[in-house]
Amino acid sequence: MPQLRWLGHAAVELNVAGKKVIIDPFIKDNPSAPVKVDYAYDADVLVVTHDHYDHLGDAVEIMKNSTRPLLVATYDLELYLNEEHKIPWERMVPINVGGYVNLDGVKVALTQAVHSSRYSDPTGVVISGGGVTVYHAGDTGLFEGMKTIGDVFSPDYVLLPIGGRFTMDPAQASIAVEMLRPKKAAIPIHYNTWDLIKVDAKEFEELVRKRGFKAIVLSPGQSLEL
Question: In what residue span(s) does the Metallo-beta-lactamase domain sit (predicted)?
Answer without folding.
Answer: 8-190
